[in-house]
Amino acid sequence: MSSPAIVFPTHSLAEAARAIVAAGRYFGERDMVPATSGNFSMRLDEHRAAITRSGVDKGELVEADILEAQIEGPLPRNSSAETPLHLAVYRACPQVGAVLHTHSTAATLLSLRHEKAGAVVFEGYEMQKAISGQTTHEAALALPVFPNSQDIPALAEEIAGTGAFEGPARGFLLAGHGLYAWGATMAEARRHVVAYEFLLNCELEKLRFRP
User: Fold this and answer.
1) Contacts of 115 by beta carbon, 8 Å cutoff, 6+ apart
2) What phi and psi, each to the nearest 5 degrees, are found at residue 145?
């Protein structure tokens, strides 16, 4: 029996820009994208995505800061250096509609602490069920951690080769660099980021009492 055809969302660049600007303000107000860190994208259709340009404070985005990128094509001028990571997620997972990268203190510190282990593992948290596909707090949820690199295209290929984009975590950490999470919609991607940031903060707080 053949798989059902994928129905891609269709959004205008203006619609996506408004959603990305709103996400930037939301995360900026919560200190998750300090300075010019972080980057956000949203799928426009099967072949295109909207993504933040480089070098701007994501908490102060305006619609003109959002660029259109070809998912299989060359990068747009002035796009974020991490655009290849976003596009690699869209190529690997046609069902993904938005990818969000935050750079909080908890994500940065725990990604470094767990780099050698290769994952931060959450167990026993009700919040784990905020990640799509997770149905119980009794199972372990592993958020992969990958070494950071300045060669982003090569890094994107390396992560793609591990199958992490298609994995159940719906996200990963880059060591010293923060969280990437995605979802079928912008709302789902935002929920995943908020859930992971809560879980990471809980793990960081535990270290204060049980280093």
Assistant:
1) 145, 147, 175
2) -125, 130
Strand locations in the chain, DSSP E? 39-43, 48-52, 66-70, 98-102, 119-122, 141-146, 171-174, 178-183
101 near 179, Cβ under 8 Å?
yes
Report d(CA 168, CA 52) in Å as an integer.
26
pLDDT score of 4 more than 70: no
> Is residue 82 exposed (0-12), middle (13-18) or buried (19+ Cβ within 10 Å)?
buried
* 48-81 pLDDT tens trace: 999 999 999 999 999 999 999 999 989 999 998 8
Using CA atoms, how far apart are residues 71 and 88, in angstroms rounded to an integer?
A: 8
- CA 43/CA 27 separation, integer angstroms: 19
Sequence-distant (≥ 6) Cβ neighbours of residue 62 within 8 angstroms: 21
Distance separating alpha carbons of residues 123 and 141, to the nearest angstrom: 7
Q: Which residue has the tokens 């295109």?
A: 48
Contact yes or no for 193/178 (Cβ under 8 A): no
Q: Tokens 């055809």 appear where?
A: 5
pTM: 0.94
